[in-house]
Amino acid sequence: MEALHIEATEDTPKIYFEPEVDIYLIEGKSLPENAVDFYQPVFDWADKFFNSPETPSDVTIYFKLDYFNTASSKQIAKFLRIIENSAASENVTIRWFYDEEDTDMLKAGNRYNKLMNIRFEFEVNKD
Amino acid sequence: MNNHSQSKEKLGFVYKLFKAMQKNNLNYIYRGSFTENITDNILSLAETNLVKKDDPRMLRRKVYNVMVEGLQNITKHQAAIKVDDDKNYGVFVLKKENDKYYITTGNLIENEHIENLSAQIDQVNSLDKAGLSAYHKEVLLHGKISEKGGAGLGLIDMARKSGNKLLYAFEKLDEKYSYFYLHTEIPSKNAPKSSLNTKSSGILNYISALHKMLNDENVLIIFNSYFNQDSLMNLLSIIEKQMMESLQQKKRIYHSMVEMFQNIIQHGDDYQKTEEGKAGLFFISETEKEYLLNTGNYILNEKIPILSEKIDYVNSLSEEELEDFYNHRLLDFDIDTNKEAGLGIIDIRMKTDDNLEYYFLNIDDKYSFYSLRAKIIKN
């Protein structure tokens, strides 16, 4: 299965989707000027990955974002929607990380949990 | 006075400030306590954003050097005075106009130092290039230490690096303290020879008036330039290090700033077309209880009805209704371009603690000046 690696910049997150080692991670800050363009490769990857006969039976996606803007929040919703509508949606768990004091980040995760029919787990970041 | 005219009066300040800064093309002002972190950040902001990348290397280095001396000058004086309130806030101003950079600093000093300081600057100003070099050497070797411990080296360096006179003024505050303003200009090589005259204190009168305006409104930081992603990222790094608030509050300030800034990048209109971005003003001010985030930018008159309707609507919603509206918009994938996710204003309202205040000041047939203010309550 195909991997997707995008290095972090000061305004975009690191994307590390690597089936070979079974790690799926989005980490860092997301506030790009052109969120739609930035996330397009992520959608393309997800479309293929979650609708393939080879999709692993158990995929955990680590969301370790410490900040995202509203433009990115919509792209995250789109990404989750692709998973929700995919053949493999029941195989997927979103593990949503947040700083203990950062109730807004917890709230944001809860919102997606409520709006999407996907399994969510929440975990406090350890420093 | 009803709420509307009150907010109109308050937000009128945004345009007043914008105009005041435009008139003299001021790019960046920081007012507050100067810590090492903050001066480092101002320097990097200047390096990456305010000082034009296509300027000759030599000029950039000079500006950088003069900035370092000016900032150190402020921290030195700040440390010497044990006044722990916003009266002791220094001010740093950087602007660029026609091939020239202008650097001004302002800080509180004790009146008893005025005489000594004036004498030092007059001495520096009396010397030509060779004289300055000799004086620099003499102070270095024989350590003619001033009372402030700076040996006056900073001042000599500023004069040498800028290749210009140092303009100064004192604005008496009370029996004990005055504000000390220091100004110099750095011309690029090709610019006509600078005519900075120590007698012409117009610029300092202007800075001192502006400083008073900032003091009255308790403005902490002003950015008046082109709004683009680079300038946003730089300002954010300053805010991150400057604000001594809880993580949650810092994140909310950060969050609201990003949305307000990107809102201008995407939706502001160019009064005068420029390639760098949309001209605008961003500043943070504070009251005892809250931080106020303010933006000001030009907008086409035709956009006003829809925008005001949208803000009024968002202001009318309860917390729960806001959440529902946000969720509705979040999943509305018909509104989904790089320019517009349809969430910015809702999000700013959700992350802040009061209704959003706004005001459109008519400029001409085509444009208005749009001021937006969000409040975040301090812990």
Question: Any overview of this molecule?
Answer:
- The complex is a heterodimer of chains A (127) and B (379).
- With 127 residues, chain A is of the alpha/beta class.
- Chain A has three helices and six strands; from the N terminus they run βββαβαβαβ.
- Chain A has helices at 35-49, 70-84, 103-115, and strands at 4-6, 14-18, 23-30, 59-68, 92-98, 119-124.
- In chain A, strands 1-2-3-4-5-6 form a six-stranded mixed beta sheet, with helices on one face.
- In chain A, strand 3 (23-30), helix 1 (35-49) and strand 4 (59-68) form a beta-alpha-beta unit.
- In chain A, helix 1 packs parallel to helix 2 (70-84).
- The longest helix of chain A is centred in the N-terminal third of the chain and has 15 residues, at 35-49.
- The mean pLDDT of chain A is 95.
- Chain B is of the alpha+beta class and 379 residues long.
- Chain B has a domain at 33-217: Heat Shock Protein 90.
- Helices cover 48% and strands 23% of the residues of chain B.
- Chain B has helices at residues 3-23, 36-50, 57-80, 114-126, 129-142, 153-162, 202-217, 229-242, 247-267, 304-316, 319-330, 344-351, and strands at 26-32, 90-97, 100-110, 167-172, 177-187, 219-227, 278-286, 290-300, 357-362, 367-377.
- Chain B has a ten-stranded antiparallel beta sheet, with helices on both faces.
- In chain B, strand 4 and strand 5 (177-187) form a beta hairpin.
- The radius of gyration of chain B is 22 Å and the shape is elongated.
- Chain A binds chain B through residues 10-11, 31-37, 67, 69-71, 73-74, 77-78, 81, 99, 101-104, 111, 114-115, and chain B through 229, 233, 246-248, 251-252, 254-255, 258-259, 262, 265, 323, 326-327, 330-331, 333, 336-338, 341-344, 346-347, 351.
